[in-house]
Every structure is written in structure tokens, then in C-alpha cells.
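name: query_chain
kind: protein
chains: 1
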Amino acid sequence: MTRKGGKTPGTDDATDFGSLVGPVTPVRGKSRVPLRKPPPPPRARFARADDQAVLEESLSIGPSEVGLENGDELNFRRPHIPLKVLKDLRRGKYSIQNELDLHGLTANEARVMLREFMADVLLEGHRCVRIVHGKGLRSGPRGPVLKVKLNKWLPQWEQVLAFTTAPARDGGTGALYVLLAR
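structure:
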């Protein structure tokens, strides 16, 4: 009797396999060769999109604008201004002589208003002013736009000796006290 394929039941399968494959060496021990590469680790579907959005946002704003959050306090003083003056300014020991409210404005509108305001207060000889920029709560993921811009714009005026975040009673992290040269 023969099987399918023409073999007789008494034929040794190992001998047939050896003649077909050739000489082989058996693997010793427990080492095994993986048959296929393991699949890549799972990754959240939206993580790549989030990472890409963060990257694009970080590239779209300048390096001086990165890292400022809603609750961050601003402090600036010229090198020749003592630290005590900045602390006194922060504590509200200077009387506020004028005020500018910028919140709700775009950056371009705010810049125009700031220029006009600074020209007026410097002409009038004011010593200390308050600028309200808002906390940036409605700015979304961009954070506080006007706060960041003021931090960049104010030091450009030589007459700005120092500025700092106002105390909570006068706007907190949504306002600045600015000390001006006479």
C-alpha cells in the first residue's frame, strides 16, 4: 500500500528530509531565532498630532516669547537701578500717576496705544504708571499675548527704569507697575 505522493509506509521520513535539505547542525540550548520582527510599540493615535502641534507652535513664536504663562510674574530693572527700588515698586510704594488698559486689544492695537501713552506720560513727567494687559485667559494655547509683548517692548524705552507685576489689589499678573525716569 502506498500513501499519497508515492511513499510506502516503511520509508524513513528523516532520511528523506536529510537528503532534500542537506547537512544540518542542531541548535543547542534554549536559544531560539525569532521568526519575525516584533511589532512596534503601540502609540496613541492623537499623540503624533499633539506633538506636531506643539512643535509648530514653538517654532511660530520667537525665542524671547517662549515659556511665559498666565500666572508668571514679570520683573525688569536697568543695571544701575538697585534691587530695593524694584522691591518697593512691586510693593506699591510709588504712587500711580496714570494708567493704560490694553486688554481686549490685538497686539498691533496695543502697540499703537502704548506708544501714544508713553509719549504722553513722558511729556507730562510722570514717575510711575500702571499698564493693564490682562491675564491672557482668552488667548487659548498661545498664552498671554500682550503680557509677552510688553515684556519685550517696555525695555526698548530708555526712560523705563524698571517694571514689575502689580500686586493682586491692582491687577496681579494681569498688570504691570512701570517706573519711569524723570
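note: Residues 61-67 have pLDDT under 50 and may be disordered.
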